[in-house]
Design goal:
Blueprint: H1 2-23, E1 43-44, E2 52-53, H2 63-82, H3 86-115, H4 123-126, E3 130-135, E4 143-147, E5 150-156, E6 167-172, E7 177-181
Parallel strand pairs: 5-7
Antiparallel strand pairs: 1-2, 3-4, 3-6, 4-5, 6-7
Helix pairs in contact: 1-2, 2-3
Amino acid sequence: MNWLIYAVIGASGMLFLLLSLMLGGDAGHGDAGDVGGLHTDGVSVAGGGVGHDVGDLGSWFSLKVLSGFAVGFGSGGFIASVLDAGTIGSLASASVCGAAIAAAARAIIGMFHKNESTSHTTEQALLGREGVVSQTILSGRTGEVEVDGVYRAARSTGETELKVGAAVRVVALGGTLTVEPAGKG
């Protein structure tokens, strides 16, 4: 009768896995899909990705990894039970298969997250960065600049007009960035 318990565990794991794949689950950055708050999103300043999200390395506690463990555990235990491996043999087989499937799921999820990119830039990372005026900034008025692929409203520090295409540097943060010509200071 142990085979029935393993079959239910495996089927439940498969159901949760399919639902998480169809509904998105914890695949995206910033999702609350990881159990226990162990999501590993971060900000990197290395490798040219200043202020950009570097992604998740595949949490052991994500719904997909836990579901994979249940599928492997149930399948391994079911097969061992049907082959009359006994309680200890079935449990050992279930545990090994569960761990193997969970490790594979974690590696695959990590591989996908590693290849993802995002345009999220932290506010602080913009300070001191150079960009280009994308909408003319008139004296005392607001225009727009593009810094690291992010378009933001901006004002000039001086009385001069900054025309489209002008190189600028971010000198102050806020709802509207404050910029100056890139060659200044």
